[in-house]
Amino acid sequence: MNLRNIAIAAVAATLAAGLLLSQSAKKKGYRTSPTGYSDTPQLPGQTWKVHDIARPKPRVVTPGAQYGAPPSDAVVLFDGKDLSKWVVETRKGQQPANWTVANGYMEVKSGAGTLVSKEKFGDAQYHIEWAAPAEITGDSQWRGNSGVLLMSRYEIQVLDSYNNPTYADGQAGSIYGQWPPLVNASRKPGEWQSYDIIFEAPKFEAGKLARPGFVTVIHNGVVTQHRKEIIGRMAHRVVGTYAPHDPEEPLALQDHDVPVRYRNIWVRRLTGYDQP
Ligand code: MG
Question: What is the pTM of this model?
Fold first, then answer.
């Protein structure tokens, strides 16, 4: 028996085993249904028919073992061990990242500079965990202030908003200076909190804004921004505006002179996932 015949015999044996399994399964009430159709109507605005058998199947992504753990296609920016995926932005330009890393988290080092990812992202899904300091040493915007700066510009505010009066569009889960969170889903200072962010990057054409950015924010499992249109870059006491930038820019974490902690940071690019 040559190799080809061995292969054919192996396939035949597998098919026979499958048939036997299917028949035995059928005996136990196993039911079958079509895996697609080709005689169905066209979906409006799409190139596919309803239940189209030829429509490409979604790629497989293995989810993390526990909620919040990075799925198989995530870019892990911080796994609790080191800052190798980051630099800091200082007045002298970018320097090696020097925020404190301990016990599986990193902590803002006051004055060290904003932490900037080496890798750049456009449309993306982010998972970020953070904790405001347990000890309260200020009020309003001096309680646990940091920030998730999408594309280094568009800030989802990080703040200790637990029983902390401050302006609505500066609370945790806000698009800073633009849109307050729909609700205040904050945990107590010192407790770990999570952001899951779905970000659609603004698009620029010929040096002008062609489409603004949009963002969805889930804070501790609660939606605080529902595909909200971003007005412009983060700004304080003025209305932020757009200025052209690259299709992909780094993620940044704000140094606002408060020792906020971060852990378990990962990103999934949403480009290349267009539905067929
Ligand atoms: Mg901030």
Answer: 0.87
